[in-house]
């Protein structure tokens, strides 16, 4: 894994245009990206390489349709804990990282300590996640919220 600077990467308008194109469709050819951003292939390739080296571009991947792969049930899990020691946090993080159904996990400020986004096949699959999680770490309170409809979902950052 490349080391990243803690400071914000310095990018100009061309870098931002390239990033917009890559976020929209990273499988585009360098020629297509260059044409769309008003540059040529070699400078675009060099800028992409520099953006990767700077850690701006973490990785390139594909976005799947959850329903098409049988994961059309989305839960947001709100977790409160009475444990705040480093050892507990490490076990909790390891438990989340080992579960492929966990798409996102965030530590929060406020009454809720963590929020976790899951994609599973159904309520039984959520329960299996829940049972495994509470077997691995002590949790004070868990609230599961079933998403009835996804109104917006994107990986595109407004650069």
UniProtKB/TrEMBL annotation:
Protein's UniProt keywords contain DNA-binding: yes
HTH asnC-type domain sequence ranges: 11-72
Any single GO CC term annotated in Swiss-Prot or TrEMBL for this entry: cytosol
Keywords: DNA-binding, Transcription, Transcription regulation
Pfam families: AsnC_trans_reg, HTH_24
GO molecular function term, any single one: sequence-specific DNA binding
GO annotation (BP), single: response to amino acid
Superkingdom of the organism of origin: Bacteria
InterPro entries with a match to the protein in the record: ArsR-like_HTH, AsnC-type_HTH_dom, Dimeric_a/b-barrel, Tscrpt_reg_AsnC-like, Tscrpt_reg_AsnC/Lrp_C, Tscrpt_reg_HTH_AsnC-type_CS, WH-like_DNA-bd_sf, WH_DNA-bd_sf
CDD domains: HTH_ARSR (cd00090)
Name under which the protein is recorded: ArsR family transcriptional regulator
Organism: Paracoccus jeotgali
